[in-house]
Write a sequence for this structure.
C-alpha cells in the first residue's frame, strides 16, 4: 500500500504560518497597549505631583496669574489622561479582534488536524484489511499447493 498522504497538508502548513504571523501581530498590539498604559500611569503620577505642588503654592500664597497657570496645566493633564484612556480603549478593541482572529485560526488548525487523524485511522484500517486479505490469500494458496501434492 502506498505511503499515507494527507491531501490538505499544504493548507495545514500554510494555516500554521498564518497563525504564527497572527500571534506575532497580537504580541505587537499588546506591547503597544502596555506602552499606552505606562504613559497613562506616568501622566496620572505627574498630575498627582502637580496637584500637591499647586496645593503647596496655595498654602504659601500665590498670585491669581500663577493659580490660573496651574489650573490650566492641570486641565491639560486631565485632557491628556482622558485622551490616553480613549486610546487604550480603542487599542483594547483592536487587541480583542486580533485575539478572536488567533482563536479562529487555532480552531481551523485543530479541525484540520482532527481530520488528518481521522484520515490516518482510515488509512491504517485499510492497510490492516489489505494485509489480512494478503495473509488470507497466502494461506489459501499454501493450502491449495499442499493439497495438490
Amino acid at each position: 500500500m502506498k505511503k499515507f498522504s494527507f491531501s490538505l497538508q499544504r493548507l495545514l502548513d500554510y494555516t500554521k504560518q498564518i497563525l504564527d504571523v497572527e500571534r506575532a501581530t497580537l504580541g505587537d498590539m499588546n506591547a503597544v497597549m502596555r506602552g499606552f498604559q505606562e504613559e497613562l500611569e506616568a501622566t496620572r503620577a505627574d498630575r498627582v505631583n502637580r496637584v500637591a505642588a499647586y496645593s503647596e503654592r496655595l498654602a504659601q500664597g500665590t498670585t491669581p496669574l500663577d493659580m490660573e497657570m496651574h489650573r490650566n496645566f492641570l486641565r491639560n493633564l486631565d485632557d491628556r489622561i482622558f485622551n490616553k484612556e480613549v486610546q487604550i480603549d480603542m487599542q483594547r478593541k483592536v487587541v480583542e479582534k486580533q485575539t478572536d482572529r488567533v482563536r479562529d485560526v487555532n480552531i481551523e488548525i485543530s479541525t484540520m488536524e482532527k481530520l488528518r487523524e481521522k484520515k490516518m485511522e482510515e488509512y491504517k484500517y485499510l492497510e490492516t484489511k489489505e494485509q489480512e486479505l494478503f495473509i488470507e490469500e497466502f494461506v489459501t494458496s499454501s493450502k491449495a499447493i499442499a493439497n495438490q501434492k
The radius of gyration is 35 Å. The CA atoms of residues 52 and 130 lie 85 Å apart. The chain is about 90% helix and 0% strand.
